[in-house]
Design goal:
The complex is a heterodimer. Chain A is α/β, with parallel strands linked by helices. Helix content of chain A is 30%, strand content 28%. Chain A has an eight-stranded mixed β-sheet with strand order 4-3-2-5-1-6-9-8, sandwiched between helices. Chain B is an alpha/beta fold. Chain B has one domain: Dihydrofolate Reductase, subunit A (3-Layer(aba) Sandwich). Chain B contains six helices and ten strands. In chain B, strands 4-3-2-5-1-6-10-9 form an eight-stranded mixed β-sheet, with helices on both faces. In chain B, strand 9 and strand 10 form a beta hairpin. The longest helix of chain B is centred in the N-terminal third of the chain and has 12 residues. The relative contact order of chain B is 0.26. The chains are: A alpha/beta, B alpha/beta. At the A-B interface, strand 7, strand 8 and strand 9 of A face strand 6, strand 7, strand 8, strand 9 and strand 10 of B. Strand 8 of chain A pairs antiparallel with strand 7 of chain B, so a sheet runs across the interface.
Amino acid sequence: MRKLVYAINTSLDGYCNHTNFYPDEEIMTHFTQLTREADTYLYGRKTYELMVPFWPDVAKTPPGQDDREADIEFARAFDAVEKIVVFSQSLDSVEGEKTRIVRTGLQEEVLKLKQQPGKNIFTGGVNLAAQLAALGLIDEYHFVVHPIVAGRGTRLFEGISLQEKLKLKLVKSMVFKSGAVALRYLPQ
Amino acid sequence: MRKLVFAINMSLDGCVDHTKFYPDEETFAYFTQLTRDADTFLYGRKTYELMVPYWPDVAKEDPSDEFAQAFDAVDKIVVFSKSLDSAEDKKTTIVRTGLKDEVLKLKQQQGKNIFTGGVNLAAQMAELGLIDEYHLVVLPIVVGEGVRLFEGINLQEKLQLKLVESTVFKSGAVILRYVK
């Protein structure tokens, strides 16, 4: 069965708003690698609307002088992913043939996706990720903890409903030049 | 000038409620070392009431408990509180106002580190830029609730820190040490 991998940038105090961070090239390359290991994205509406059409547009636009190589590489890896599944009740419709919307039955949908052959399923964001984590559907967690205290914003796993603490197993930790730390966990 | 050092255990999702986790021996040893590097504690009321008389009592009962012994050996405790009426022993003083001045005064005195923890007071001190070193022990758990790191902090802009060390413990806890 293929894996559902969750990755996100966070501040020290656990806030995930993407506007808090400006990942450097080293970190972008890290995310590009994770993206290349996947062939399917699973997103909630908010993260979908954040990523699309922003990154596909970057991939399609001829690179300008100021564009970072690492951003272009990320955009290309993003755009190369074959399928995007958006789990949303409110999103009306999507453009493009590789994207479809699923309205209900999150657990069944994820199990169905996992049973298909292929590379990893990759997810991000907060709301959907909280639901996926609570259902025990995430197989790998990648957090990039940036050396900042944000003080406000959307929390990691905000709104998660857990009967008991979710215990994880640290399998890798890596320090980036910027002082950000990548922490990789598996469920116990 | 001596340093104000902040250290706390925290879940992956930023929960610092001490009742949600129990640090293992390796983590306790880490806090014991930090305690030995200090000669003054600076606490808000809640953390003070959590630590005292609990740890001094353990120190009296159990000479082998290294953390308790280190805690009890610290020379001075300064409690910053408007509501705490009085403190029992001679090494503890209560300060009611002027947090920034008090901390700067303490830093100018000779001695080892000033050690702090907790949530409310730490948030105020982080806001004022008074904390010189942050030690976050990130435990490999997601709690989903509870009081959060620096809850209530009021920052005009993000506080940018510099990672100086990261260590992995056997338990999967990661110690992240930051300076201003």
